[in-house]
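Our preliminary data section would be incomplete without showing what the modeling component actually yields. Below, a chain of 80 amino acids is followed by its predicted structure, encoded as C-alpha cells that our downstream tools consume directly.
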Amino acid sequence: MGHFLLIYDRDAGVLLRDEEYESAVEAMRARFKAELEFEGRDDIEIVALDAPSKEELRRTHGRYFFTVSELVDRIGVVGK
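Predicted structure:
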C-alpha cells in the first residue's frame, strides 16, 4: 500500500506536490507540515491518501493529475 501526499492549487489547476511515503503516519506528518506552510491559502488543497499503487491513485483521483479535457477524454463523455 502506498501513502501519498498531494498538494493541489485549485485556482491554477496544477498539482504542486506528489510525494509518496513509507507509512500513513509519515504521510500525515507531511500533510500537517504542509498545512502550516500553506496556512491561509484557500486555493490550496492538501490531502493524504492511501492507494495500492500510484497508478491506482491516478485512476481514482484523476482530478489531481489530469486536466479537465484529459478527464473528459478518459471517460468518453464528449458529445453526450
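The mean pLDDT is 92. The longest strand covers residues 2-9. Preliminary results of this kind motivate Aim 1 of the renewal.
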